[in-house]
Please model this.
Amino acid sequence: MTIWLEAGFWGLVAGSALVLGAAIAWIWTIPKAVTAAVMAFGAGVLISTLAFDLVEEAESIGGLRPTALGLLGGSVAYIVANLAVNRYGARNRKRSDELQVSEEEQPGSGTAIAIGALLDGVPESIVLGMSLIGGGGVGVPVLAGIFISNVPEGLSSTSGMKLSGRSARYVFGVWVGIALACGVAALLGCVAFEDATPRTVALINSIAAGSILAMIADTMIPEAYRDSSNKYQLWTGFITTLGFITAFTISHFGV
Model:
């Protein structure tokens, strides 16, 4: 298998976790406390992945300046794009309850939610594809971090879509489409940056990290906290820490 096809395959594998989470939420009614806990765990996983497998590597190969600039640029790009899709009904796309708007309440919100989900998944897929450059195989910690964090995203968002009256065709059309887009993004990340300089690789890695960090702060952790009842809200930080430890352990041992 050529390296770019392998990149596309692993991007698709990581993206398939969104479909897995969606299927779980569609088949079963998941208690809000469980959804919140899974979301918090996924946030912790992503924080560790971007800290130790994206930012640290970016700084080591490209230096502090491009890494810092990339982080700032990625966060600004995500915030601007997120504000744009929020205006059309995607503000609560990760909510597991009825706060997600229906198509009847806001026409075009279905498309906005789909674009918002794509916005959340593409940066990390590009980095995953770049991890294969050099022939060393896929970056296992990055793959594991993305896969683990994608399950709660698909689960929480689908719970909200289901409650707001979205059809199975729409829900699984979105997540299967996003999974395919993740595969394409990983493939393009491998092909487009195969001959990139270390500073360019560092910049791209840190842009993705900045985007992911902004997404965690803007959506995942707030939703995890809000979806918990008062009884369980104090556990949000603890569960996030468990996710961080899990991803850090995977990164440390390279398993």
Observations:
- The mean pLDDT is 81.
- DSSP finds eight helices and no strands in the chain.
- The first helix runs from residue 3 to 27.
- The radius of gyration is 17 Å.
